[in-house]
Amino acid sequence: LYYIRFSASNLNSPSIVETLADGTENFVSYYAINYILTGAYNIELPDPLFDLQTSFLLQSDLAAYSLDVNGTIFFKSKYWGGIGLRTTPQNISAFTVLGGIELMNGLNLGYALDINTNAMFPSGGTSHEVMVTYSFNLDTKRDQKYKSVRYL
């Protein structure tokens, strides 16, 4: 299983203009177009209890870029843990550690810790994220047999 996706935001490059008290307008800034390329690939490991999902996220405004590379291992499709790395042209800017569990059918709980290594945050700023997700089972298989096509 794999996927790849490309998207862009701020396609019209909106600008921010402030109106001063005397009625004059002052150009403040504009939003650059941001391009995003992301993808993932599931690797089946020799042990059927484990699966490995690798993914990447590349963001750029054509002046600078940021690349995130992640790996998550799943055990029995119920427990998972992973690591990630964010890099820019200047340095490695963050490490990520995450883990989670499927509590019941479709309900997942996870935690992620993002450790910032960028020089802009000398104290080593970190962020914490708690994730709660629910996945609906949209299985369309029909085991019931019908004698008339009217009931399909």
Q: What does it look like?
A:
The chain has strands at residues 2-9, 15-19, 25-30, 34-44, 50-60, 65-75, 79-87, 92-104, 107-116, 126-134. A hairpin with a 5-residue loop joins strand 2 (15-19) and strand 3. The chain has an eight-stranded antiparallel beta sheet, with no helix packed on it. It is extended. With 152 residues, it is mainly beta.
Strand tally: 10
Termini Cα gap: 30 Å
| Radius of gyration (Å) | 23 Å
Secondary structure class reads: mainly beta
What order do the strands of the largest sheet run in, or round the barrel if closed? 1-4-5-6-7-8-9-10
Key words describing this protein structure:
single chain, 152 residues, mainly beta, two-stranded antiparallel ribbon
Detail the topology: elements first, then pairings:
Layout: E1 2-9, E2 15-19, E3 25-30, E4 34-44, E5 50-60, E6 65-75, E7 79-87, E8 92-104, E9 107-116, E10 126-134
Antiparallel strand pairs: 1-4, 2-3, 4-5, 5-6, 6-7, 7-8, 8-9, 9-10
Quick recap:
The chain has strands at 2-9, 15-19, 25-30, 34-44, 50-60, 65-75, 79-87, 92-104, 107-116, 126-134. The chain is mainly β and 152 residues long.
